[in-house]
Specification:
Length: 222
């Protein structure tokens, strides 16, 4: 509040202008380890537009502001008052898009019933929603995200958790080939047996929870 009342401070909108040569020079001076890591990732992929995901993931996380802007002596600030939105979250993405009568932003095939203020993106299949509010539902060929649209902190924590767990979907580019995973279809229960077809190879056994109607629990064969 004191900063606002003093009128001696400006809000950092995160918009920067620089030439490629100047930026590379500043990284060489202030964050050379990061620069060398990015170059290794580009060399590993052989694609100047898409660094190797595994190599890039080894870099330490450091915001551009702290790595360069707070250290460089070649910075100038230009005050301005434009209309702008920092699209850095699902919430801000929902805010800028056109919505239906229920406040939903829908991209792709989706069927909604009593659903409001949601961001829904369907890439490969139909998404059906009923009785939902303020959610993000993002479907891609390799993953499905369902989260509270307003809780950006929870989503950031989730991404860190998935990275720590070594989930390839977080680091690999979309469509990357991965080891096959088992496909488990619903069990068919008959008398005292539950038959569950399993396709693929898995190091972990399939787990079956007996239905409440059978306290003894069926035996399972795969």
């Amino acid at each position: 509040q004191a900063f606002v009342e003093s009128k001696n401070y400006l809000w950092n909108s995160g918009m920067f202008l620089f030439s490629a040569g100047v930026l590379l020079n500043e990284y060489t001076i202030h964050a050379d380890k990061t620069l060398k890591g990015v170059r290794r990732a580009l060399e590993a992929s052989g694609d100047l537009h898409r660094p190797d995901a595994a190599t890039y993931a080894e870099l330490s996380e450091q915001p551009f502001d702290k790595a360069i802007m707070e250290r460089s002596n070649r910075v100038a600030v230009v005050p301005c008052n434009p209309g702008w939105s920092d699209i850095g979250s699902w919430e801000s993405l929902w805010e800028i898009h056109q919505k239906d009568d229920c406040g939903n932003v829908i991209q792709g095939r989706a069927a909604c019933h009593k659903t409001s203020n949601c961001l829904i993106q369907a890439n490969t299949r139909l998404i059906a929603c009923a009785g939902l509010e303020n959610l993000v539902v993002i479907e891609t060929p390799d993953a499905l995200l369902i989260a509270d649209r307003r809780n950006g902190d929870a989503m950031r924590s989730l991404v860190r958790m998935l990275k720590s767990a070594g989930c390839a979907e977080v680091t690999d580019k979309p469509g990357a080939k991965r080891a096959p995973r088992p496909q488990i279809r619903p069990a068919v229960v008959a008398s005292d047996f539950a038959v569950r077809p399993i396709t693929g190879v898995s190091e972990s056994p399939a787990i079956y929870t007996p239905p409440p109607s059978n306290p003894q629990g069926p035996r399972e064969v795969a």
